[in-house]
Amino acid sequence: MGSTKTKPPKIAENLLDFLLLTSEEFGALGDYEEQYNRIAENRGEASAVIWYWIQVVLSFPVFLYNSIYGSMIMIKNYLKVALRNMKRQKSFSIINIIGLAAGMAGFIFFAMSGATKLNSDNFHKNADRMYGVVQVLPSETEVEEHNAFTPVPLLPAILDEYPEAEAGMRIMPAGRVTLSRKENSFYESGVLFVDQNFFDFFNFKLINGNPGSVFSQPHSIVLNEKMVIKYFGDEDPLGKVITIGNDLNLTVTGVAEDFPRTTSIRYEFLVPIEAARSITGGMQNWDQRKVFSMVMLSENTERKDFESKLGSLRARYNNEVQDMPNKLYLFPFLDFRLHGGEIESIINPSPAGIVYVTIIMGSLLLVIVSINFINLSIARYMYRTKEIGLRKVVGARRGQLFRQFIGESLLMSLIAIPFSILIYETIQPLITSLLGGISNIGMISNQSNSIINYPFMLKYLLGAALIVGFFSGYYPALVLSKFQPVDVIGGKTSTARNKGRGRKLMIILQFSFSILFILIAGVMRNQAGEIFRSDFGYNRENVAFVRIASEIRTDYNAINSELSKNPGILHSSACGEVPFIWAPKVEAIPENNEDNAISLNAYSVDYDFIEVMEIEILEGRSFVRERGDENSFIINKSAAEKLKWTNPLGKQLEFHGKVGTIIGVADDFIFTDIVFEIPNSVLYLGSDNLNCLVMKFSAGTDFSKLKDSMKKSWTDMVPNVPFEAFTMEEYFRGFFGVADSVVGLINVIGFTAMLFSVLGLLGVSSYLVEKRTKEVGIRKVLGATNFSSIWVLIREFVILVVISYSIASILIFIGWKKVLELGLLFITDIDPAVYLIAAIVSIASAVIAVTSQTIKAVRTNPVDSLRYE
Amino acid sequence: MELLSRKEELILLAIWKLRENAYGITIRDELEDSIGVNWLFGSIYTPLNQLFNKGLISRQEGETTSERGGRPKVFFRLTPKGKEALARIKELNSALWTEVPPITLK
Known about the structure:
The complex is a heterodimer of chains A (869) and B (106).
Chain A: H1 10-20, H2 28-43, H3 45-69, H4 72-88, H5 90-118, E1 130-137, E2 145-147, E3 149-150, H6 154-161, E4 165-173, E5 177-181, E6 184-188, E7 191-194, H7 198-201, E8 206-208, E9 220-224, H8 225-232, E10 241-244, E11 248-256, E12 269-272, E13 291-297, H9 303-310, E14 327-332, H10 336-339, E15 343-344, H11 352-381, H12 385-394, H13 398-435, H14 456-481, H15 485-489, H16 495-498, H17 500-533, E16 543-547, H18 556-564, E17 569-575, E18 585-590, E19 598-605, H19 609-613, E20 617-620, E21 632-636, H20 637-643, E22 652-655, E23 658-666, E24 681-685, E25 692-697, H21 703-717, E26 725-727, H22 728-771, H23 773-781, H24 786-821, H25 832-859, H26 862-866
Helix pairs in contact in A: 1-3, 2-3, 4-5, 5-11, 5-13, 5-14, 11-14, 11-17, 11-22, 13-14, 17-22, 17-24, 17-25, 22-25, 24-25
Chain B: H1 6-18, H2 24-35, H3 45-53, E1 57-64, E2 72-78, H4 80-97
Antiparallel strand pairs in B: 1-2
């Protein structure tokens, strides 16, 4: 037996030794080794090694437990000392705890955003067996088109042909539709047509109604809570009727819970897909791609095997189908949100990169906070060198001291947890409402972001607190436990000079981060303002828009003239969309030059549009009603340049089978958002594609009053159609307002980070200055002025801050150069004022912080400071 | 009377049963073989610590063996106070179980 004996891995043994604490007195390590040898003998050395490592991992939680509560008497003493220290240095402790709490609150915010996306959709019971069917379509370019919009009959065919497909689900977004309940009607974009088994297939919760039978009647509808309040208020919605479009009546059969943030399938209304037949055609056709088809494979089916069989389905597509898919494949449902960006589908992708960036941002905050903690701790612990020395003299081992300090920093970060939740819960509604302004971008979950709804975040938070506590305690503990009692008690705490490098690095790191945040906020604010002020080629002021639903488009002229009668309206027109983020691309063929088609944005407008928007005509004329300009085009200057005609007037263009004569050239205008070059555009009179009324009202008109009176005339004429009106400036602000709130957020983070950096500096400098009081005294005795003594003390810190400032501004400078190289319109060089402000803020705050500490030292009479003890 | 936790109680009993030969490994074997519990390997040390602090057991270092990497075995024994506690646990248990109708398994 003796010869076969082996030893457990050395590292594992050392780790275990470190982790076992008091158990050592009970012979634990020896017991472990004996057991190790037993296992090695019975089951081989490999499994013994594995067993040993598992024991190491398992003893970690016990270690944490013990390092906080451990052996009762010592811990009581540690706790007493820790609390006493906290009390004695109140401001330090408060700064530390609030700093930790703020950092962790920021971490919750970022981690939540990332974690909800990483944990997307796995609340469905069989989510790992669900797949979306994707078609690879032929395409003219090199890149294949992956499309998850499939023909309606595809899924029944799959379920019919392959028994491995256990269940299926089709989802068809309804787009923008009008829903009405009695006299109230609204435009809604959250309507999904789904298969009957929706609530069996998914694990969405119904508050009211039977999951198995809510959709047993084709003309039924399920709303979520938020929509119940919008349409019914306090009434019981069950059994009531909601009308979709003009005349399709649906009975409410259930109420669903508001969708959580963790779902990629978002809905406000659910309607059985059978009901869609009366609204839209092509429900039996194989040549129309309409629905997202999902299949759930049976438990032992491999996706690859199943996919290989799918090819035979292509026979089902008729021969007339233009875009016969080259291939069909399955894409895992759980991967759609993060990795489905290349596939056209109903799921809004959240690219994995962005998710990781948010988590990294959150962790970065933790790093800043940790550094702050380390700086403050070191400064603070220097006051405790005597305690350390005494403990060592009395017989404390280095490991014990180490554990004591780690335990203290863990205690601190654990205390910070409730505060961080408090901070998070206070700012969370604020941030949500700020970001909620982006109503144009998809649907945002109505479920509150409160941490209560996401209990898994508590685990993340606890983990973050333990990690931060451990790592920010680690360095100070390492430094402090190393002290030799003789040096410490003898008063030789000369670590200030030779150990200063680590601390300097920390300060530089911390300041660089905070200056970087401030610079980014400055640049963003600067650029958002720049874009808002820039000339888009038309006058944005005093212009109102009123949406017209497709069902009343035929009455457009009557409505237009009726609304224009309201006082204050100067003139009115119409257009296809609000002229912002509007880019209907067409290929236009110039006269006699079929080979050189150019890409244009073709905007459908009505007469007077050019006058309402105050677009300048450079050559030729505008559209004139009396001259019957139905087949006339007006192009903008950049389009004229692109077409390379010496005189474009009278020339012909063709797009979408429409041939027209150019009657005018307008100055450049931009109806899209931020672009790389001014888009080539053409305006045409498209009476069948007008979705918005545009009205110019006189300056000084109260828009809310105008809106009310317009609404009155509107409801008199078309009572069942929703009325939606807004000014162009409101619309604009809606987009840039988001940028504004993001800027605000970054600013807050930047200044908080700066504040904590300054507080950290305050801590460090107060310690270092105190150590140098005698030096200052000697300097003064030798004739130094107050000012020069202050300078000697703060010089070191000012240099550090200047270095961090240079690092941050160089990073921004290089980064912005890269952005400029992209060539976006309206993006300009960084205003030097941004650099200047950041420089002033950072250097001034550092100088103030350090000076406040030095003044005391400098003011002290050298007689006092040089007196021996 | 101060009650012991179930874990402490079982360990105390195991030490008593093992008499002269109670140390980490044997205690664990005893618990596993005769009582049938399968705790984590490291989980007996915290209760041992508690029992020691309460003065119910004493410890004594024994011979070193090569299986233990040259570390001594640590033997445990019940102190008089520990024996008293064990006796009282027995008393308490039997007192609790008198006049309890028999439990039969179906």
